[in-house]
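Okay, is this right?
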Amino acid sequence: MSLFNPKSVTFDIGGGRMVTIETGKMARQADGAVTVRQGNCILLATVVANKEPKPGQGFFPLSVDYQEKFGSAGRIPGSFFKREARLNDYEILTSRLIDRALRPLFPEDYLCEVQVLITLISSDEEVMPDSLACLAASAALAVSDIPIQEIISEVRIGRVNGELIINPSRTQLAASDFEFIIAATDKNIMMVEGESNECQEEDLIKAIEAGHEAIRLQVKAQQDLRGLVGITAKREYTKPYRNEALNEKITAFAKDKMYAIAAAASAKFERSDAFKALHQEVVDFLGEELPDEDKALIGHYTGDLQYYVVRDMILHERKRLDGRGTEDIRQLEMEIDNLPTPHGSALFTRGETQSLTTVTLGTPLDELLMESANKSDYTNFFAL
């Protein structure tokens, strides 16, 4: 008799390209684990979460790591060290795309540590694994009892010869004139990121709509898989201590003062100092006799109050912290050749944000080897 009793669902993402999500065979000690397969490309996603938050935990510790193992393509890294170490830039950026879509879906009062790992364990030359990574992460959460509030997925949209393609192959992507990554639930768009030489607004809207329709299919597949596994309820968790009476007291004392600071259109450092001074006023107002557990909430409630006051000012008065309207941009200034020795330099300033950039010209001997599980290419343009 087999040790395994896997459950799986299969769906078509278009053009007869079948994707299978399976759970119950690998990583069975994780809170949730799935494999996602398209062609020869297989991703393993696992999720684990602590049952209780750490004492004094004041934030949600979610970590998302996406990694493409060279062994998945039967390759050994060509670097001196031959061993795979930290995530490369591409893997870090892919991890952030997944994190950005998943993080808002956890309850605001959920502070238990959560770890999401997505690993490419088998590679296909034509299948882009990063476009399946968020699907894998969400599916692993869906078949677990970790209290995520909604199921999501991500797709890549490309356009080749005027035709929109969901999760284009490597060959198709090379011929595509735009590329967007879209994350969504079955009802709401969570994130859009991408690039294009030129893109009309109506073309972008069509791409988002096509991507959202594909995501709805993937969300339905995850729901079906969760039903097969038998997950009907999410785990209960310890909620952080809150004192609504204290919140109301802080709001009554500080709301008008908070608004005055936000509406003053002062410089960033002045505004920051003013917010810190107001926080100290709140501490002095509440007094030293406040219980220790309530003292720890002062920063939380004043931070929330600042968030809502600033947000309401922007939404209702169409006014930002520095006095700009919602359609006004910061003053821009650019200088070139401002450093004497580098081959090229530029200083870009937008409001209080600055970027100093230099360029160095080399020879063909300076080309950089860029390696991933699927390819090794030399590039003559790279950022340091």
